[in-house]
Structures are given as structure tokens and as C-alpha cells.
């Protein structure tokens, strides 16, 4: 082997990464990302199942290098200890208490019908993100993309205040109002009217967040990015894509060159979200509506299963929300019996209970080691397999998660 070939081989073994990636990995070694990232224990347990599968080592291993406690302790600087610890955890698979390449949470909230509690749950989660740490919040900022123009600051403030009053009953009304107003100033709402505007805002978001002259959240980390809903511009984008395809076909028939195929706007949005998540280490949450299959049973059996949506494959955890149904009156009940049970039935309706379960394709991904592609149509959802969900109540007094 010549010297040139040997040098080329050595260069191929060199691992290259940016300074930002290196500092991010060092930060995860010194300050591991907490597992309870959302503030709702029931939801954090579901997320932990996805992000932290069964680990190899049953006991927690010490973070420090074996240098500490040895006869040569004190003869090396802290940089050498950190470097030894870094390489030990990076290359030893038995150290499974932390994955330095672990990604922040990406969660999809989906439902088959509107008014299923997706936005209300996002309001509650956003409240937990912006609250100070002294009130068991994450003391972070939230970026909210209101893609359908239905964001309600009044409802968000109501949920936040009710949470404070319920959790801290000794707080005075003026204190609750002051805490909520200060916390709400760290929610940044954008209202794009198209996918093009959404892409433009996402591309400029980092510059906006790092500009101390534009907002008061400069000293807070970015805790969560919300897209509600992520599929708001689906039909608009589909129309534009069909028109572009028609124009390209007409141009080709008249002798013009065929236009190169461009990536979809959804793919570009997802790329921007991944870049922001990698840079700021924030949670990404978005809402979608499950598409109904209107074809007949025979046609469904003979046709190939539709591919997974890009939004399905982006999320590490997909949660399906639906209103808990209230049983109807039995056909054999008399009018007097129905009137007698009317008040109790109305009380059950007023409780507004919603179930939150894990989508079947998320369960399949866990069982297959991350491979989400499987046979069958996942649009119908599932009961979450063996992963238990939870139930929440939504009322004018706020959002409550049942234990």
C-alpha cells in the first residue's frame, strides 16, 4: 500500500462535524435531556416508551471517566476527563442511560373528526412550557403557527389561569393574572396564509429568535414549535401542483423542455422543521386529520395500501384523539325512563371526556425497530396495542387529565 493510499484511508476514518454539533453532544453529556419533557405524566410515559426503548444495562453507570478515583487523579485536567467520558459513551453500547444523538420529541395529534380536543390539548401543553420553573413549568418560549386562523389567546389564557388556580390554590387572583400575563408574552404566534409563507417564516425563524430587539424571550430556550393544523394548505398545494403539472405537459407538447420535478412543499416544510429542531433542541407538535377511505371493501382488498403520509413518518409518537361516546337511549326504554335519565345523561355530556390513544403505526414502529412501513391501511388507526392511553376532560374551566 502506497503512502497516498494509506493517507486516503486514514482520512476516510476521520469523523467530521460542525462546532454546533460538537457543543450539542457535549451539552447532552453534561446535562442529559430529561425524560419528562411535556409536563403531563401520562403523556410523558408514552413518549418515554418511544424515545427510550428497552435498554441493555439495568443500572445507571457513572458519567465520569475511570480516571477519577485512580492514582493519577489530579494529574490530568478536566478536559481530559470530559474527553474520556465522551468517547466512552459514544463508542460503548452498554452505556444506554443516554443517547447523545437522541432527538427531541416530535408528536402528531390526529383525529377522524373535528372538535376532538387536539387544539385544547396543545393549549394546555403550551401553558406548561411557558410557565416559570418555580411553578413547575419549563420556562421556555413557544412558536405557534396558526395555519387556519383559529388560535384563541383568550382560551389559552383561561386554561393557563385555571391550571394555576387548581395547582396553587393559595395564589391571589392578582398574582395569577400577573404570572399568566408574563408567561403569555413568550408565545409567538404566526399566521401564514399559504405553504410558501409558512416556508418563508420557518426559514427566517432562527434569525427572529436570536434577535434580542424583536421579542422578550431572548433569554429563554425554544421549548416547542406548534403547527395547528399541519395539513391546512393541503388542497391549496394540491391545486397548485396540478396546475404546474398541466402547464408542464402543455409546454412539453409544444416542443419545450420538460421541467425538473420539484420536491413537494410538505417535504420542504418538514426539512425546515427538522433543521430548527436540531438547532434549538425543541419539541415539535402538530395536528392532522385522518383521511377516510371511501372505496368499497372489495376495491380496498384488491388495491395496494396507500403510502404513509410524510407527517406520519415525521412523528416519533402519533396520538389519536376522539370524544368518548355517550351511549344512546335503548330502543326498549319508555318516554318516562328517558326523561328520568335525561339529567344524568346531560351531565355526562357536559363532562366532555376525550380519549387519547397511541396510533397503530406508532406501535408497529416500536415493534419493528423504527420501520413504519407495513401492510395494510393505517388511516383507520388502532387502539394503541399494549400502550395505555389516557382520558382528558375539556370544559370552560380548562383542560384536566384524568389519573
TrEMBL record:
GO molecular function, one term: four-way junction DNA binding
SUPFAM superfamilies: P-loop containing nucleoside triphosphate hydrolases
Protein's recorded name: Uncharacterized protein
Organism expressing this protein natively: Exophiala mesophila (Black yeast-like fungus)
Gene Ontology cellular component annotations, sorted alphabetically: microtubule organizing center; Rad51B-Rad51C-Rad51D-XRCC2 complex; replication fork
GO biological process: DNA strand invasion; double-strand break repair via homologous recombination
InterPro entries: P-loop_NTPase, XRCC2
Region of interest (Disordered), residue spans: 365-384
Superkingdom per UniProt: Eukaryota
Amino acid at each position: 500500500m502506497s503512502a497516498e493510499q494509506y493517507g486516503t484511508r486514514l482520512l476516510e476514518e476521520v469523523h467530521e462535524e460542525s462546532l454546533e454539533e460538537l457543543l450539542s453532544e457535549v451539552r447532552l453529556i453534561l446535562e442529559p435531556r430529561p425524560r419528562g419533557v411535556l409536563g403531563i405524566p401520562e403523556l410523558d410515559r408514552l413518549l418515554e416508551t418511544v424515545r427510550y426503548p428497552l435498554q441493555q444495562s439495568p443500572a445507571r453507570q457513572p458519567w465520569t471517566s475511570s480516571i477519577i478515583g485512580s492514582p493519577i487523579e489530579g494529574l490530568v485536567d478536566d478536559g481530559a476527563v470530559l474527553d474520556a467520558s465522551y468517547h466512552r459513551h459514544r463508542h460503548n453500547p452498554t452505556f444506554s442511560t443516554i443517547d447523545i444523538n437522541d432527538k427531541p420529541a416530535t408528536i402528531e395529534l390526529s383525529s377522524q373528526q373535528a372538535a376532538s380536543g387536539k387544539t385544547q390539548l396543545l393549549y394546555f401543553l403550551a401553558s406548561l412550557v411557558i410557565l416559570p420553573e418555580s411553578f413547575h413549568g419549563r420556562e421556555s418560549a413557544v412558536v405557534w403557527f396558526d395555519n387556519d386562523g383559529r388560535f384563541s389567546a383568550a382560551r389559552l389564557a383561561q386554561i393557563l389561569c385555571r391550571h394555576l388556580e387548581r395547582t396553587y390554590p393559595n395564589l391571589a387572583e392578582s398574582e395569577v393574572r400577573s404570572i399568566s400575563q408574563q408567561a403569555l408574552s413568550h408565545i409567538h404566534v404566526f399566521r401564514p396564509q399559504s405553504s410558501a409563507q409558512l416556508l418563508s417564516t420557518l426559514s427566517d425563524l432562527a434569525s427572529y429568535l436570536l434577535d434580542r430587539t424583536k421579542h422578550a424571550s431572548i433569554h429563554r430556550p425554544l421549548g416547542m414549535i406548534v403547527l395547528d393544523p399541519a395539513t391546512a394548505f393541503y388542497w391549496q398545494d394540491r391545486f397548485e401542483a396540478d396546475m404546474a403539472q398541466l402547464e408542464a405537459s402543455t409546454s412539453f407538447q409544444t416542443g419545450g423542455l420538460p421541467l425538473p420535478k420539484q420536491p413537494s412543499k410538505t417535504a420542504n416544510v418538514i426539512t425546515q422543521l427538522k433543521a430548527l429542531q436540531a438547532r434549538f433542541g425543541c419539541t415539535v407538535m402538530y395536528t392532522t386529520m385522518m383521511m377516510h377511505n371511501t372505496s368499497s371493501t372489495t376495491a380496498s382488498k384488491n388495491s395496494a395500501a396507500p403510502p404513509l403520509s410524510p407527517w406520519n413518518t415525521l412523528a416519533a409518537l402519533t396520538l389519536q384523539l376522539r370524544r368518548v361516546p355517550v351511549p344512546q337511549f335503548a330502543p326498549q326504554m319508555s318516554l318516562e325512563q328517558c326523561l328520568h335519565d335525561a339529567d344524568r345523561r346531560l351531565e355526562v355530556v357536559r363532562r366532555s371526556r376525550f380519549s387519547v390513544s397511541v396510533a397503530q403505526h406508532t406501535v408497529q414502529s416500536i415493534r419493528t425497530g423504527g420501520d413504519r412501513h407495513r401492510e395494510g391501511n393505517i388511516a383507520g388507526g388502532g387502539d394503541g396495542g399494549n400502550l395505555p392511553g389516557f382520558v382528558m376532560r375539556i370544559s370552560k374551566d380548562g383542560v384536566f387529565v384524568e389519573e
